[in-house]
User: Fold this.
Amino acid sequence: MSDMPANKTGEGAWRRRYSLLWPPALAAILILAAWELSIWLFKLPNFVLPTPQEILVAAIQDRGQVLHDTWATLVESLVGYVAGSVLGLGIALLFVTFPRVERALLPAYVTINSVPMVAYGPLAIIWLGIGASSKITLIIIAVSYSILINALAGLRSCDPGAISLLRTFGASERTILLKLRLPAAMPAIFSGLRVAVVHAMILAVVLEMLGAREGLGWTVFKSTQMMDFVAAWVAVGATVIVSLAIYSVVNWIGHKLVWW
Assistant:
């Protein structure tokens, strides 16, 4: 009798995992089926759209280089993503605490980010070199802006009555910020973190295409120039896998921290 609740709990957890996993798995199967069907129906040549099997075989055969380039892009995007997230949240807290600083600096921050960050790519390469520094710097700026805007909206979404109540009980502005504003802003912050994953990966790949020594973006550019379109698709596939992996981790952390 004592095993029944545990069994029911385990079965319920398995059902929850299954309900979360089968929709994306089914979508992936349908996409692959549509891919294969399109090639068969329209008689698409290899250079227009290779088959998934060709891409998989090429990835396995050249796995050493693929892993090397994937690691280079992953490091650039992750370092820029984490640093940009910390910077954006820190600036948001600073702006909420000191509104005059926000009035002075926010217009400049918006002006910098009003131009697509890719447009700064050539300048970043000239100033910081063709290596990872130029990519990481621009990723930090783009990610921090996304986090900043979402965090500001979340930090200011608190109920004014709750803030007044805490002040009535003698709570300091720092206590209100850490105990009320920041927890209330967590959903908005994680929304920004999810969007920033896409920004980080797009910037890393596109900036590598503008100039790099390694990375998935450089592989796409180099392979296209050499008419090796299967290798380019391998790099694209690796980019998708890395993006989904980072997004899944961020999403999982968000569900754990913002459980309500």
